[in-house]
Amino acid sequence: MSALRENALHEKFDLPGTDLARAACQFAEEQEGPYLFNHSVRSYLYGRALGEHRGLRPGADYDDELLFLSCVLHDLGLSAQDRGDQRFEVGGADAAARFLRERDVPEERVEVVWDSIALHTSLGIASRKRPEIALLHLGAGADVAGDGLDLLPADLVTEAEDLLPRLDLITSITDAIVEHAKADPRRAPLGTFPSLLVAEFAPEHAQPGWRQVVAAHAASH
């Protein structure tokens, strides 16, 4: 990211300006395609705004730097660098944790970021966790699926998409998750978000369903 664009984003949206936050922003942009990086920053903006809608104040009710780190690093599992066997949410959480530990971030803070990223697609769970975890889930959901988008200030969405264009986000992120899972079936275990996308968009690569799993178990006993 050019220094000019980075400064424009920080000034326009009052992003956390710590050295760690700026390093994470640069790292994410280096690892991800523009559509994914833009989505990650918009997830922070929307998560923070949805928190304000719920009466949550950054710096008072939650740690704003931790929310930013969680959001900007949350899709590292879809980067070309991920060669592991985990679903992309867990692979991304592991990558973010490595990034933070290499910079001597205290373990209790690393754990919050790990949980936030690992749980960000977990409906009914993430929203009931601590604010940093819940707000990543809500912000990413607003950007991808439109959940809660009507609660955001219209000018925020317009300005965010102007400086951080969507770039065909839905098609691109769906393809990325499916291709990531197709490369190793262990990346889409039964019942996970990746497994749902594989079943819909690449059914020939889908894992055995519940009835097949329990039938196979019953047949072996």
From TrEMBL:
CDD domains: HDc (cd00077). Residues 32-129 form the HD/PDEase domain. Transmembrane segments: none annotated. This is HD/PDEase domain-containing protein. SMART domains: HDc. Signal peptide: none annotated. Gene3D superfamilies: Hypothetical protein af1432. It comes from Saccharothrix coeruleofusca. Pfam families: HD.
